[in-house]
Amino acid sequence: MSLSVEEILRLPGLESLTLRAGARNLRRSVRWSYVAENEGIAEWVMGGELVFVTGINHPRDEANLLRLAREGVACGIAGLVILTGDEFIQRIPEALVELAEREGLPLIEQPYALKMVVVTHLIGTALVQMTQVKHSRRDILGQLLSGDCPSLAIVRRRAGHLQLPLEAPRRLVALRLAGIDRLFREHAPEEAERRLQLYRQQLLDRLEDWQRNLPDALPTLVQGDLFVLLLADCEQACGRDALLGLAATLARELPLRAYLGLSAPAADCADFPRALLQARQALEVAEGLRPPGGLCDYRELGVLRLLRAIPDRTVIEQFLHDTLGALLAPGRKQPQLLVDTLDALLQEGGNALRAAQRLGIHRNTLNQRIARIESLSGQSLDDPQFRLNASMALLIRRTSSAQLEEPRQ
C-alpha cells in the first residue's frame, strides 16, 4: 500500500510534527513532498503531495495561508505542513485550523528547529522504500491477472516474502469512471487532463482507504482506465451491501460516476485471469444498463454471458436490426417510439394495462401501437418465438453502447 500521512507522522525522527486539523483524512496517500515557494500552489501540484510552507521565500499572512489551503483542497493534496517559529510564520492562524478541519485537510505544524533537510530526507527515504515494495507487489499481481508469469511457484514464493495473501478465495471488482468524454467537451484539454488526473488520484486514495479495514487486503491495481480490486470472498469485503456502500461513497465524493463489475469467486491466484475477465464483462453490462448503485454481479448476468462471449459483434448487430429495425421511423421526432413500446410491453409480461401505465399513455393508444408493431414486423406478439427474439434484442439494446440505427438495406 501507499505511505499515508498518518504513517509519516509516525516516522522515527519526526515526533515533533503536530497534527492541528484534518484527522479524519490521515489515511490519505502521499505521492511526494513539495516545498511551496510561490504565492499559490495550484499551478505546481497534481494531487497527493504533502505541501510544506516555510514563509522564507514569500510572505505568508493569514490570507495567503487560507488561499494555499483552499488551492490544496481543490487540487487534492495529501496535507499541508506549516513551519512555525519566531522569524517567519510565528503561529498558525485559527481561521486556517478551522478551514482545514472543515475541509478534512490534514494540517501539520513543524517547528523550525526541525530542519527541512531532515524531514524531506526521512520522508523521501520512506517513500522510496515503500514505492519499491509497492511496485514489487503490483508486479506480482499484474502477472497473475494477465496469466503471464514464467513460474507460478516462484510468484507464490515472492508473494510470501512480500506478505501478499494470495491463496484464499477472492472476488475481483473492475471499476471505471464514466463521463470522461463530457469532461473534455466542457473544458480545455489542459484543464480537462488536470481534473481527470485529480479525480483518478482521489478515486485511488478512496479505494485504498476503503480496503484498509478489510481482511487480507491487496493493493488496488490500475490498468489503463480500469481500477481492479482483489477482495477476500466474504460479506464484509464483496457483499452487495458493502460494494453498494462503496459506490455510494464514490458518488458523493467524486464528480464522475463510477461503475463496478464483480466476478464470481476465484479459488486461488491461478484463477485471477478468468475472474478479471468476468469482472470486466459485468462492468460492461453495468455501464450499459446503469443499474441503481452502478454495480453488476457476473453471477447474475444469465444469458448476457452468452452474448458477451460472441466474438463477432456484427452477428449481434445484425440480429438486433433483423428483429427491431423494421420498427424504426427514421426522420421522425421519436424514431424509436415503437421499440420503446415493445420494450415496456415485454417488461410488463405482456400486460397491456401496466405497459400503458408505464408509458403514460391511454390503453387505446397502446393497442394502436401494438397493431403497428405487428404490421411492420410481420410478427404476432402472441408468438412465443417472436417474444423471445424481441426480448433478447431489447436486452442487447439496453446493454450495448451502440445505438439502434436505421435497418440495413
From TrEMBL:
Residues 338-396 form the PucR C-terminal helix-turn-helix domain. Transmembrane segments: none annotated. Residues 7-126 form the Purine catabolism PurC-like domain. Pfam families: GGDEF_2 (PF17853), HTH_30 (PF13556), PucR (PF07905). InterPro entries: CdaR-like_regulators, CdaR_GGDEF, Homeodomain-like_sf, PucR_C-HTH_dom, PucR_C-HTH_sf, PucR_dom. Residues 154-285 form the CdaR GGDEF-like domain. Belongs to the CdaR family. This is PucR C-terminal helix-turn-helix domain-containing protein. It comes from Pseudomonas delhiensis.
